[in-house]
Amino acid sequence: MTKRHTCLALIAGTLSSSILLTSCMGNPPSKTGTGGASGSSPQTAVNSQAASQLETGTVNLGFVPILEAAPLVVGVEKGFFSKHGLDVKLSKQASWAAARDNVVLGSAGGGIDGGQWQLPMPQMISEGAITNGKKVPMVVLAMLMSQGNGIAAANSVKDGNLSYDLKKTSNGFFKTFSQKEGRKFRAAYTFPKANQDIWIRYWLAAGGVNPNKDVELLTVPAPETLQGMKNGTMEAFSTGDPWPSRIAKDNVGYLAATTAQIWKVHPEEYLAVRSDWVNKHPKAAVALLKGLIEAQMWLDKAENKDEAAKILSSRKWYNVPVSVLQESLKGQYRIGANGTRETNPKLGPLYWNSDRGVISYPYKSLTLWFLIESLRWKFYPGTVDSIQQAEAINNRVVRDDLWLKAAKELGLPAKDIPTSPSRGKEVFFDGTIYDPSNPQAYLSSLKIKS
């Protein structure tokens, strides 16, 4: 590890583990709607009749300001949660590691009950694999969003013409880069051994680049990506929008690939809550899901995109220009080194509808994929060493019964209620097939792995 890499890791680790945000831990609702990311807005008073039917009237959830968190923010701001009797208190997390540390504390200890997560974080928190052996059982309740992530590249590597298919556009570039610069290409993500690390690894490996040998991987919190790209900390970054789009819009770099180009309608981040909270408050958990589902349905409507961008843009939530969020939510991208404009809502963030069915439902076949990738890269030795272990962990943590109950109580049409925990076979841009009924075949087909 280089001195610079060590320094970055230490800085990221210090920021991640020591900052425990308490701005919304039990604070009263904001009176102005412009304060810290906390509580429910005054125009969305909790439905007292619905609240009387629940075991608790509040839940503390963490979020990171990327598009995956939009259903949680919209659920608060538009009153979808309060309609069902629940006061959802959202706290902005400094990093994914801070979210992890806060959920270990739990709301009783000044932390959070759950929130937005990259996978397989909830599974590994449950197993104690990323919490220094302390097992905090969690429940994955729903998928928050599909797509809406990207891999941004710095202007310094425009000559590499990086794209989603590196074999076609950038064959041999990484080797040439190392020879020219005297060091490896630096690629970053927001948290190791989870979603965004997995995306960049899949992208590189599909292009014939070994992420363990041919590049240097860094962990950098999402809000620091813009500055990191400006000062040359990294050549590429994998994270959720609006950050990749903002990097392109501000001409700090370019959007090399969207995750939708890698795998259409792919699984992204999830809502997961501590098991003890869910077990103690099953009716409240269903109320939480009903509010989430309605927020996702609202977000997916084209006529609501501008309002959603305005809500999210506020300092209270994302503190990002409205125009950047409008483009991100509408699937308007500047793709490639030439910044080719492309508008395709089907390749942008999806919150409810898709060609592969409902987004929100927590398909076990999709959550399992993250554990199979963890096995591929030997992320969690001693915890995920076999497909059988991966499947067992997945079955323990992912629950669809509460989602199905919420959907039925909302009166959703039968077409929007999945009848199987598997979405079936999945196909990636490079022709690789993931069949959840035979994950070993998928694993064996991958040429580059640890």
Indicate how many domains the architecture comprises: 2
Poorly predicted ranges? 1-36, 38-43
Strand order of the largest sheet: 2-1-3-10-4
| Total DSSP helices | 20
Outline, from the CA principal axes? globular
Instruction: Identify the CATH class of the largest domain.
Output: Alpha Beta
Mean pLDDT: 90
Which fold does the CATH topology of the largest domain refer to?
D-Maltodextrin-Binding Protein, domain 2
Please indicate the percent range of residues in DSSP E strands (runs of 2 or more).
5-15%
Structural class: alpha/beta
Tell me the CATH architecture of the largest domain.
Answer: 3-Layer(aba) Sandwich
The biggest sheet amounts to:
5 strands, mixed
What's the CATH H-level homologous superfamily of the largest domain?
Answer: Periplasmic binding protein-like II
Structural notes for this entry:
The protein is of the alpha/beta class and 450 residues long. The chain folds into two domains: 3-146 and 267-313, Periplasmic binding protein-like II (D-Maltodextrin-Binding Protein, domain 2, 3-Layer(aba) Sandwich), CATH 3.40.190.10; 149-263 and 330-347, 3-Layer(aba) Sandwich (D-Maltodextrin-Binding Protein, domain 2). 38% of the residues lie in helices and 15% in strands. The chain is built from 20 helices and 14 strands. The chain has helices at 3-18, 48-51, 70-77, 80-83, 96-105, 121-127, 166-169, 173-181, 195-206, 225-230, 243-249, 259-262, 275-280, 282-299, 305-313, 322-329, 364-376, 387-397, 401-409, 439-445; strands spanning 58-63, 87-92, 114-117, 138-143, 149-154, 185-189, 215-219, 236-240, 253-258, 270-274, 332-335, 340-343, 426-427, 433-434. The strands form four sheets. Strands 2-1-3-10-4 form a five-stranded mixed β-sheet, sandwiched between helices. β6, α9 and β7 (215-219) form a beta-alpha-beta unit. The longest helix is centred in the middle third of the chain and has 18 residues, at 282-299. The model is unreliable at 1-36 and 38-43 (pLDDT under 50).
